[in-house]
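Dear Dr. H.,

I hope your travels went smoothly. While you were away I took the liberty of generating a structure for the chain from your last submission, since the lab meeting agenda had it listed for discussion. I wanted you to have the full record in hand beforehand rather than looking at slides cold. The sequence, exactly as received, is reproduced here:
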Amino acid sequence: MNMNPCCRTLLSHKGGAFFAKSSTCSTNFLTFRFRSHSLSSPWARVLGIRNIFNRSLRDNYVPALGQSRALYLVGCVGNVRNHSTSTESRLNDKNFERIYVQGGSNVKPVAVEKTDLDENVLKREKDDDVGKRDGPIGKIVKEESAAEKEAWRLLRNSVVTYCGSPVGTVAANDPNDKVPLNYDQVFIRDFAPSALAFLLKGEGDIVRNFLLHTLQLQSWEKTVDCYSPGQGLMPASFKVRTVPLDDNKFEEVLDPDFGESAIGRVAPVDSGLWWIILLRAYGKLTGDYTLQERIDVQTGIKLILNLCLSDGFDMFPSLLVTDGSCMIDRRMGIHGHPLEIQSLFYSALRCSREILAMDEASKNLVRAINNRLSALSFHIREYYWVDLKKINEIYRYKTEEYSTEATNKFNIYPEQIPHWLMHWIPEEGGYLIGNLQPAHMDFRFFTLGNLWSVVSSLGTPKQNAAILNLIEAKWDDLIGQMPLKICYPALELEEWRIITGSDPKNTPWSYHNGGSWPTLLWQFTLACMKMGRADLAKKAVHVAERRLSTDHWPEYYDTKSGKFIGKQSRLYQTWSIAGYLTSKMLLDNPEMAAKLYWDEDYEILKICVCALSNSNRKKCSRHLARTQMLV
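The corresponding predicted structure, in token form, is as follows:
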């Protein structure tokens, strides 16, 4: 990737180290600057001369952007206990290695093992090999509609460049918005549909640049009130800023936000998960696997996984997060173990298992991934699933059971079942609840979490089919006049006041509290195509395209049916535009859609850490729920 002069990313690190990334057209190299630790001089240049980092700097690494002749990287692989689903946080000489690369990586493409297909999925064509990167990938060429042409024009106008290269798209590009707040930044989660749209169009450079630049930002020091989160956290967003230099010159710098400027000061847990998912999608849709083979990219994946798989006090395999740590980034009562985070976490783990180089340094991490995948899939399938039969079972629960044989393991009180659910749940269909904690089940239907459970096969084949059956049965509630509801139903009255803190933006049936979000359309399309229900996706796309262009591509819609444009909705919202385009292209290219989802992996289901223990103490009741796991 060619970089123009006068561009750099400033990275401040713990331990007093200061890194500056610079590039020129004639000599492409990395420059390192240290305040308290130097290699041989204050400005030591890496030009093929092998130097050794000071031991105190081993926690830091600088990913390369371009074809540098030599790189110094620090690989981080936590030691994993044989029976653990997490990585150790202890640092030692064995799991922190200095890596010297001359002339790039020689790693062969990662072999992806083919898994059995879901029983209820229609037979699909075998994935075609894709030619060289950025070449045309779609087989079907058709005339674009006026809405599609407008959407592509708007999407291209939203592209952000850094040093002359495209690196992402802004969240919204409304020319009449005089106070954009942070909507003029590039968000990792928001860029996902834009990335897929460009990849499906055969334009992969912007996605490659985005992945590498956000990887570089991963090592930025992140501090809020003198406290820094764990290494490996990805930013929520970044902005390209122009800073003045001497002699009336200017340069561009990347300015990331890790949550220290966000409302509520919440770290974006989902950013790293989306980054890994996009990395896999880039390789699948372009056929270019050299990016994921790079040592800096492999190291970035490991840092994210070590952060997610670290040991803690939690007894569950699901990730414990605060409110506002994902797409729903305001207080909405999703703290704990929200389904959205679990489904993205599961997807990122499956991506990582495909992408990670199978070498000695990674084997413990891969073992931890496999163990976590097995435990997480069982946990979600067994305890998050509700349908008419399961609700009736909860209705008859006994409470205060103190036993490893307890049926009501989380001490859920039957009185928690909301009255709306008893009348709302259809005879055929079901869904995964929004959250599960001791003595608490959040029975709200969260769309993104359920759709990604289908896409990633976190749910069983029967559960996946039942989720789409429920959406079809409750079409007026979940689709209405604009797809799709972010959650259902909305919090109202006293419940809204207590849970949201009387949030004026999350009023009932608005924004995150039951608003309708067009960007969810592409995820619904992908889930439908996986399950052989393209008819549902086409129906939803038809509903959306009747209004999106006329309404100037809003961020979200209000009211129970999605009738009105959101009261604080930004217009020309990029992920609404990109979500529509991605949906259209996925429907036109089913062979490309097949590269983006996962089928059931029965090998994961066979793994049970409890079976590896010599203890006679019962660890889980998995054998009692075997049929639920495998159907």
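Two observations you may find useful: Residues 1-5, 9-83, 88-139, 624-631 have pLDDT under 50 and may be disordered. The two ends are 47 Å apart (CA to CA).

With kind regards,
E. W.
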